[in-house]
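Q: My labmate handed me this sequence with no annotations at all. I'd like to see what the chain might look like in three dimensions before we decide whether it's worth expressing. Could you predict it?
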Amino acid sequence: MRGSAIMDDSPLTVDYLGCAGRATLPRAGAPVDYTSVPFTAFPARSVPESPNYLRQWTRAGTHPTVRPAHPSDRAHLALGGTLTGVLDAALAERITATLRSGWYADLAELPGDLVGCLVTDDRVFLFRSLFTRDTLFYKQSGHTLAWSSDPADLVPDTLDRLDRETIWRICRGDSIFAYPELGLLRPGHLLVFDGVSAEVVQYDRITPKPLPRGSTARDYAERAWELLLAATRPYAHGGHIGLLLSGGMDSSAVAAALVANGADVTAYHLATDDPLADESEYAREVCRHLSIPFVPIMTDTGAGHVNEDWRFSHPYNHTGFRWLEQIVQRVHQDGVELLTWGRDGDLLFSPAPDYGVCDVLRGRLSLPEKRLMLRGLLCSRWTLTDLLKSVRRSYSLAIDASAFGDYTRHPDFLVSMPGVRFELPNPEFVPEEQTTDLALAWPHGVQFCSPMADRAMYELMTGMPRAYRCISYGGRNINKPVLRLMLEDRLPPMIWRRHGRLWLGSPHENFCLNHPQTLAGLLGPDSLLARLNIVDPAQVVAVLGHPLSTRRHAQSLICTAMTELFLRSLESRAAHPVRS
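A: Here is what I predict for the chain of 580 residues:
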């Protein structure tokens, strides 16, 4: 997190959640209706009617006077995200001066992972740090710019404006944005609006910084541990924090680094009574080894796994919303404000989507390493034909039809829409994370934060030879070898020697098998998705009538049900019902 200005003893500030605003330029002296208010979840929150307004959303329970300091009465600042240190007048002046001067690259040195906006007399600035999971959505209409951390604030009569193909793809399981007419601020970018046009500028990017030529995978592992220690150090000064611990290597590495820094951390684990998906022995062993509290939370796979009372401003395109609801409710009950996890581990240590033999042939590796890796690939599950094809960068060994299962073809219960291709998820916008914040975490005063989302970590790992992300040996593909080396002397062997995966989708499949009436009720003839000709209710009944078909479609069934709840949320505030 993660500019050079961070001090090791600086606490983390998690009071600023996001913002929303509207400005018509030039303002010609018109006042800005500026207020700092606790975040209220959609749809209870209303958009002010003021032509020029700015809302700073704060964490529930935060003192009402907490607000970004005003550099002057003619400039208004609002922020969201995790700040290292405190926001005082000096930092507010620094942000304002940086934006007004046009030295945008200096925003990369801000002490934290932030999104923000600044409203002046003649311009509006929106910016997003490179490593924050939060973003700002925006829409220009003539001389007016509107923006918000919640996209539903910006689209009146939303149901009439949704794109059928987009909603169909979300039901299939594609990780995409539901509002085609809105702009979305990308990481490391800012928007400058002058009343006529909106210019988007990239002010920050990752610069790969490899270790010297001849460095080995173990050298990268040791350096990565040093950087992870530095990245987790601010959390040691933030009071009691939580860790979402699966028992996998990513969250276990974060746990080890937090404990090494002396953080007061409690591990929360999503437990299950399904033996096919039970990871508790790994999580429990990590906690025993590190001597930190272990709090298992038994996951709900009953009728409440999908709740008709949920309301969303964006589809939650995943299966585990109820489980996150249980986690957030528990950490809130325990007084935890900051919940960490190992979210960036896959991006840092796993094979790139275009991984292939070319990474071995062209990588900065010694000849003995290349020979060893090539021999390993010849003994792997990949065929010789695939290996030869992957000599070209255009062919990937890491991506094949089996990697995505049913996503590569449309589910049987959706109305056919031929030719709609599946796209890889975009890490710059993860719908389930955004929806979790808006619908769960922020209303409970909880901030999710990934310590691995660190500039130095990304610079190192993007500079590391790509072949070190996956090594084939003895007929087995060893994923994340550098992370395994990093944990070798720091966690029990059962953690870093772990291979293969449990059947983590089994509990969701059992929910669909045991509660077909819940899904049939949500996706029946009266559903909004049926009225939009996206879901075929007769096929829903057919799929739910056959156990094997239900298991195969479990994830898309739940994603579609969550999308139906999203549409109902929008209809609840619409002036008229959705048209068929």
